[in-house]
Amino acid sequence: MRAWAVVEAKKPLQEIELPTPEPTGKQVLLEVTHAGVCHSDIHIWEGEWDLGSRGKMRLVERGVKLPLAMGHEIVGRVVKWGPEAEGHGLAVGQQRIVFPWVGCGTCARCRAEEDNMCVQGKALGVFQNGGYATHVIAPEPRHLVDPGNLDPALAATYACSGITVFSAINKVMPMDPDTPVVLVGAGGLGLQAITVLKALGHRRIVSVDVSAEKLAAARQAGATDTVEAIGEGTTQRLVAACGGPVEAIIDLVNGTETARFCFDALTKGGKLVQVGLFGGEMTLPLPLMAMRALTVRGSYVGSPKELRALVKLAQGGGLAGIPITREPMRNADSALQRLREGKVVGRIVLTAEAA
Fold first, then answer.
1. For the purposes of burial, counting CB atoms within 10 Å of the CB of 106, is it exposed (0-12), middle (13-18) or buried (19 or more)?
2. Which DSSP category does 8 fall into?
C-alpha cells in the first residue's frame, strides 16, 4: 500500500510503500477513501507534547514508531476480513466510518465499548498506521459505522472532531437551553461543537477565538455570541458576553492562557472541560476549588457508542455540516502545514484519487 507518512519528526511527509496488511482474527481491511486532517496530527508530526514545567512528552517514548501514516478521521470501503469477523454483516465494497481510538480489545473498558479509555491505547494514526494511506486495518467489525447517505467527507470528521465535542458536551449536560455554553476555539472542533449543540436544542452558544475570520465562521454556524481572545481582559469580555460568570466552558484549545481565562470566568458550581492539546499547564487556587464547588476535568475523544449516537443524530437531519475543503491524498503534507499555520476554516479532508 502507499502511505503519506511521517518518516522523521518535523520533516515533510513522504510518500512511501508499505506492505498491505492481511486481516487476521476479527480484523477488517478497508481501502481508504477519505481522511480528515486534525490538529492532533500536528503534535504527532512534531513528535512531542508540551507538558509545561514537566517538559516535553516525546511520542517515541510512548511507543509511537516511525514511519507512521497518521490520520484518524477515516472513511473507507471494506476489502476483506479475518475469519473471526464472519457473520457480522460485512460485504466487499461497503463504505464505513472507522472508529480509530482503539485499545487492547480485551480489558473491561474495551469490553464495555469505552475503548478510548483503555490504558493500552493503540489508536489508528497514532500507534499504528491510519488514514493517510491507501489501506487501513480496523481491529473489529464493531469499530465500523455505516454513514448511510451522509457525505463521506463530512462523516469522516465525526470519528474525531465529531465525537470529541459530542463527548465533551455530554459532560456538561443537562443544561437549560438558554444558559450560555462557552466554546474556546472556532476551528474544526469549535464549529462541530456549535452544530452538535444546536442539534441538541441548545440556544445560547458563545464562541471564543483569536481569529476574526474564524469567529465569523462561528457566527455563520450558529454561535449567538463571539468573544475575541486578544490582549488583556478576555475573562472580563467573556463574562460580559455571557451576562455573568459562566456555568459551562469547553476549552478546545487548552493552553496555559486559555485555561487561565476559562477558570477565572467560572461561576459557583461551574464546569471546565479541557479537550485541546495545545500544551502548557495551569495552577489552581485550591481553596476556591472547594468553596466554589468547581469542576475541572479532561475529555479524551469519544467511544464507539458515542460515534454511533452522533451518526444517528446526523442521519436524522438535525446536524448541520461544517466547511469542508477536499484535497487529494498526495497533498497531505501541504494540508498539514496549512493547518499548522492557522489557515484552515473548518476541516481539510484528504481523498483518494478515485473517491
1. exposed
2. S
Residue 73 DSSP label: E
Q: What are phi and psi of 305, to 5 degrees?
A: -60, -40
Sequence letter at residue 54: R
d(CA 147, CA 155) in angstroms, rounded, equals 6
Handedness of CA 11, 15, 19, 21 (dihedral sign): positive
Q: Where are the domains of the chain?
A: 2-160+302-351, 172-298
Residue pair 215/226 in contact (Cβ under 8 Å)? The answer is yes
Strand partners, 15: 4
303: enclosing H helix or E strand = none
CA distances from 88 to 27, 82, 144, 147, 169 (A): 12, 11, 11, 17, 31
Each residue's pLDDT, cut to its tens digit, for the chain (355 residues) gives 999 999 999 999 999 999 999 999 999 999 999 999 999 999 999 998 888 888 888 888 888 999 999 999 999 999 999 999 999 999 999 999 999 999 999 999 999 999 999 999 999 999 999 999 999 999 999 999 999 999 999 999 999 999 999 999 999 999 999 999 999 999 989 999 999 999 999 999 999 999 999 999 999 999 999 999 999 999 999 999 999 999 999 999 999 999 999 999 999 999 999 999 899 999 999 999 999 999 999 999 999 999 999 999 999 998 999 999 999 999 999 999 999 999 998 999 999 976 5
Q: What is the 3-state secondary structure (H, E, C) of 126-185?
A: CCECCCCECEEEECCHHHEECCCCCCHHHHHHHHHHHHHHHHHHHCCCCCCCCCCEEEEC
Q: How many CA atoms lie within 13 A of 45 on its CB side?
A: 24
pTM beyond 0.70: yes
Domain 2-160+302-351 in CATH 3.90.1510.10? The answer is no
- Give me the CATH code for the 172-298 domain, please: 3.40.50.720
